[in-house]
Amino acid sequence: MRMVILGAPGAGKGTQARLLSTKYGAVHLSMGNLLRKEVSEQSEIGRSIRGTLSKGDMVEDEIVNMIVENQLQRYESVILDGYPRSLKQAQHLDSFLREQPPALDVVFLLELPVESVIERLSGRRICDRCSKTYHIQFYRLQHCSCGGRLIQREDDNPETIRHRMEVYEIEIGPIRDFYEKLGLLYPINAEQGMEDIFADMSAVLDRIILPKAT
Ligand SMILES: [Zn+2]
Questions:
Q1: Phi and psi for 145 in degrees, rounded to 5?
Q2: Catalytic status, residue 124
Q3: CATH 3.40.50.300 given to domain 2-111+158-163+172-213
Q4: Ligand 1 centroid – CA 80 distance (Å)
Q5: Is 13 a catalytic residue?
Q6: Among 51, 58, 87, 148, which residue has the fewest nearby CB atoms (within 10 Å)?
Q7: CA–CA separation, 134 and 141 (whole Å)
Q8: Interval 154-173: pLDDT, tens
Q9: Entry pTM
């Protein structure tokens, strides 16, 4: 099974990807986490993208394409989260998967209004060890269940969030059209609670993926 989860920052892509990964046994590939790992390990790529990431800008296509290709060669069943982020990346992924099947089965789009995005992201905290996310409105923790420290992501301050939203709004239209034409796009209402979003996505997967397997 190969799927993409699209959606604004804070729409819950990571949370849903983690849940789906557990239920369907696919590897969760979070581009954000993969990039932040490069930064924290101070790799050559990490040093070159640190500034871009902290400003909330998009990392160069060549870099993210290369990271995704490496992962797709390693894992067959994947959930892509945070990639593709532009039409060019979507087209690149499409032609790459033609040479390295299987192709994508489904593309989810988590839809959430801008005001909700800002509200969610400014209260978001992330574990510095396992990358699990929490919201200060619901949790008043200092530490994650794994013992890691809960920190605010460098790109989760209100100014950067607004900028990331602008970038997102510009890019998402063409990506959406691209996948809609391919018949892969499934919009999901992300204003619902986490369980309801998960139930909607699971229903789609059970409908389109399980019949294929039999
Ligand atoms: Zn943790």
A1: -60, -20
A2: yes
A3: yes
A4: 21
A5: yes
A6: 51
A7: 9
A8: 888 888 888 888 889 999 99
A9: 0.84
